[in-house]
TrEMBL record:
GO molecular function, one term: ATPase-coupled lipid transmembrane transporter activity
Membrane topology according to the record: Multi-pass membrane protein
Compartments where located: Cell membrane
Domain ABC transporter: 351-584
InterPro entries xref list: AAA+_ATPase, ABC1_TM_dom, ABC1_TM_sf, ABC_transporter-like_ATP-bd, ABC_transporter-like_CS, P-loop_NTPase, Type_1_exporter
Protein name: ABC transporter ATP-binding protein
C-alpha cells in the first residue's frame, strides 16, 4: 500500500534525521538564550549609568574589571551586545544550514516516492491526469511543501520558544505593559496578514489578466498567416487590445492599493507603538517602572515582530501545503500496472486474445469482446476504419494499457501474471509517429544501451537510413529532436524501425509505421527486413492493400469489434468490410 503524503508522513521523514534534528534544536535554544537578553542590555545602562543608580551591570563590571567613566561602561556593554549579536548570527546560520538540509532530504524523499510510483503507473491512469498536471505536482506542489517544511522545521520552534522567553522577560519587567504587548502584537500581525491577503487577491487578478493577454497574443501570433488570409486582423487585434486594457485596470488597482495597504498596516503598528510609549511613560510616572526598563520594553516590541509574523506565516504555509499535498496525493492515487512475476523465457510467443474488452473512458467501450489467436512466427494484419480500435489493440498486446475484461495470453499465460519488463523485451511496437528524445542519434537508436557502432550502422542500413546518416557531419553523435536537427516524418519512422532492429524482439507490431514512406522506399525497407523478420511474429496495422495482402491472417475491425478474419483470398470472396476495403483501394489507386 502506497502511503499518502500527510503531515504525519512528513513528520516520520523528518524523524529519519533525528541526530541533525537534535543538533538543530540545541543550536536553536542557544541562539534564543543569546538573543533574548539583547534588548535589555543597553537600556539598563540608562538607569545604572545615566541616572546614576548602579545595579547589576555596573556592580559586576566594577568587581571584575574595575570602575570607570560612563564611556567605559557603555563601551563594555556595547561590545557585549555586538558579540552577542554576532554569535546569534553564527548560530542562526548553522541552524538554517541544518534545517535546510533536513528539509531538502525530506523533499528529495517525497520526489523519489512520486517518481517511483509514476514509473509503475498504468497508461490509462496516467492519461487521466495528463503530463502537464503531473509535472506541476512534481515541481510547483513539491516546492510548496518544501517551503512549508523549511518554515516548520526551522522557524516554528525557534519563534515559539523566542516568544515564550520574551513573554517571560517582559511580564517580569512589567505585568501590565507585558500583557498589552503580547496581545496587541499578534492582533496587529493578524490584521496585516488579512490586508496582505487582499493584496494577494489583487495580484492574482492582475496575473489572470496578464495570462489572458499572453494566451491571446500567442494564439494570434501563431495563427498570424491564417488570420491575415481570412482578413480578420482587426477583430483579433481588437480582442488583444481589450485584453491589454484589462491589464491596465487590474495592474493599476494592484499597484496603488498594495502600497496603500502596506502603509496602512505599518501605520496601525505605529499607532499601537505610540500607545505603548504613552503607557510606558505613565508607568514610569505612576509606578516603579524605571526609564531603562521602559526603553527595554520598547526594544522588545520590535524584537517580537519577527517571531509573531513567522508563526502566522506558518499557518498560511500550512494551508497551501495541505492543498499541495492533496494534489500530490492524486498522483499517488493513480493505479499502478498489474505486474506479474513470470518471465517469458521462450522466444517463441503465441498470443491469444480472449473476449478482450477495453475502454479509455467509462462512457464508451473502445474494444468489445475480441478474440483471436496469433501463433509464433505468424505474419498477421489488422485493418479497419480510422478509430475502429487498431492502435488500441496493439497497445494492449504490448501491455501499455490495462484491459478491462477478458484476457490476453502469451504462451497460455495471462498478461496479469507476466512481468511487464519481460513482456516488453519480447514485443516491440513500432509507432506511426515516433517521438524523438532531444539527444544524439545514437541515444535515440539505443535508448542508452551499450551497442556497438557496427550493429547500429547495420540497423540503419536495414531501415534505409544509411544515406541520411552518411550526410550527417557528426554521425551518430548528431543531436536530433527538438533542439537538434529535425527529421522528416518518414525518417523518424525509419529510425523507429532501426530501434526495433537493435532491440531484436520476438514480436513486432507495425502500427502504420511506414505510412510516411513512398511505396518504393517502403518496398525496399520490407525487403531488407525480410530475413530479420523471418522467424518473428509480425502484426501489421496498415491502410494499404499491398501491405496487408500477403498476411497469413487478416483481422478486420469495425467500431471496436472483430467483424471478419481470414486470409486475403478467403475474405475477398465474401461480401463484407474487407471486400469494401479492397474495392476502395483499387478505385483510389
Ligand atoms: N488515449 C486515448 N484516450 C481516449 N480515447 C482514445 C485514446 N486513444 C484513442 N482513443 C479513442 O479510441 C478509439 C479507437 O482509437 P484507435 O487509435 O485505436 O483507432 P485506430 O483504428 O488505430 O485509428 P487510426 O486508423 O485513425 O489510427 C477512437 O474513438 C479514439 O478516439
Amino acid at each position: 500500500m502506497n502511503e499518502k503524503i500527510s503531515l504525519k508522513y512528513i513528520y516520520k521523514l523528518l524523524l529519519n534525521n533525528k541526530k541533525s534534528l537534535i543538533w538543530g534544536q540545541i543550536f536553536t535554544v542557544i541562539g534564543i538564550l543569546i538573543s533574548v537578553p539583547i534588548p535589555l542590555l543597553l537600556p539598563l545602562l540608562v538607569d545604572e549609568v545615566l541616572l546614576d543608580k548602579p545595579s547589576f551591570f555596573v556592580n559586576n563590571i566594577n568587581e571584575f574589571f574595575g570602575s570607570g567613566s560612563a564611556l567605559y561602561y557603555v563601551a563594555i556593554v556595547t561590545v557585549v551586545v555586538i558579540v552577542l549579536r554576532a554569535l546569534h548570527f553564527i548560530f542562526g546560520v548553522i541552524n538554517t544550514k541544518i534545517f535546510t538540509r533536513i528539509s531538502k532530504i525530506v523533499i528529495f524523499d517525497i520526489r523519489v516516492k512520486l517518481l517511483n510510483h509514476l514509473k509503475k503507473v498504468n497508461m490509462n491512469e496516467y492519461e487521466s491526469l495528463g503530463s502537464g498536471k503531473i509535472a506541476a505536482n512534481l515541481i510547483t506542489d513539491v516546492n510548496t511543501l518544501d517551503s512549508f517544511i523549511v518554515n516548520v522545521s526551522s522557524k516554528l520552534i525557534t519563534s515559539s520558544l523566542t516568544l515564550i522567553a520574551v513573554a517571560f522577560v517582559i511580564i517580569k519587567i512589567d505585568l501590565l505593559l507585558g500583557i498589552m504587548i503580547l496581545f496587541t502584537q499578534p492582533t496587529i500581525a493578524i490584521i496585516s496578514r488579512r490586508i496582505a491577503k487582499k493584496t494577494g487577491e489583487l495580484k492574482k487578478e492582475e496575473n489572470t489578466t496578464i495570462e489572458a493577454f499572453q494566451n491571446n497574443i500567442n494564439e494570434t501570433l501563431d495563427l498570424f498567416s491564417q488570420i491575415k488570409a481570412s482578413n480578420k486582423e482587426n477583430s483579433f487585434f481588437d480582442t488583444s487590445i481589450q485584453k491589454a486594457e484589462d491589464i491596465k485596470k487590474a495592474s493599476n488597482e494592484f499597484n496603488y492599493k498594495s502600497v496603500a495597504y502596506e502603509k496602512f498596516s505599518y501605520t496601525i503598528f505605529l499607532f499601537a507603538f505610540e500607545i505603548f510609549r504613552a503607557t510606558g511613560l505613565l508607568l514610569v510616572a505612576y509606578s516603579d517602572l524605571s526609564i531603562g526598563l521602559m526603553f527595554a520594553m520598547f526594544g522588545y516590541i520590535w524584537f517580537i515582530m519577527t517571531p509573531v509574523q513567522e508563526i502566522l506565516s506558518i499557518q498560511y504555509s500550512l494551508a497551501s501545503a495541505k492543498a499541495a499535498m492533496g494534489r500530490i496525493n492524486k498522483v499517488l492515487e493513480l493505479e499502478t500496472e498489474n505486474d506479474g512475476d513470470i518471465e517469458l523465457k521462450d522466444r517463441k510467443v503465441d498470443i491469444s486474445l480472449r473476449n478482450l474488452s477495453f475502454s479509455y473512458t467509462k462512457d464508451k467501450n473502445t474494444l468489445k469482446n475480441i478474440s483471436f489467436d496469433i501463433k509464433s512466427g505468424e505474419k498477421v494484419a489488422i485493418i479497419g476504419a480510422s478509430g475502429s480500435g487498431k492502435t488500441t489493440i496493439s497497445q494492449l498486446i504490448a501491455g501499455f494499457y490495462a484491459k478491462n475484461d477478458g484476457d490476453i495470453l502469451y504462451n497460455n499465460i495471462s498478461i496479469d501474471k507476466i512481468s511487464k519488463k519481460s513482456l516488453r523485451e519480447h514485443i516491440f511496437l513500432v509507432l506511426q509517429m515516433p517521438i524523438l528524445f532531444n539527444n544524439t542519434l545514437r541515444f535515440n537508436l539505443t535508448m542508452g544501451e551499450d551497442i556497438s557502432d557496427d550493429k547500429i550502422l547495420e540497423a540503419l542500413k536495414i531501415a534505409e537510413l544509411k544515406e541520411m546518416f552518411e550526410n550527417l557531419e557528426n554521425g551518430l553523435d548528431t543531436i536530433v529532436g527538438k533542439m537538434g536537427i529535425r527529421l522528416s516524418g518518414g525518417q523518424r519512422q525509419r529510425l523507429s524501425i532501426a530501434r526495433m532492429v537493435l532491440a531484436n524482439p520476438s514480436v513486432v507490431i507495425f502500427d502504420e509505421s511506414t505510412s510516411a514512406l513512398d511505396v518504393h522506399t517502403e518496398t525496399k525497407l520490407f525487403r531488407n527486413l525480410e530475413s530479420f523478420l523471418k522467424d518473428k511474429t509480425v502484426i501489421t496495422i496498415a491502410h494499404r492493400l499491398s501491405t496487408v495482402k500477403n498476411a497469413s491472417k487478416i483481422f478486420v475491425l469495425e467500431d471496436g469489434e472483430l467483424v471478419q478474419s481470414g486470409t486475403h483470398n478467403e475474405l475477398e470472396e465474401k461480401d463484407g468490410h474487407y471486400l469494401e476495403f479492397v474495392k476502395h483501394q483499387l478505385t483510389n489507386n
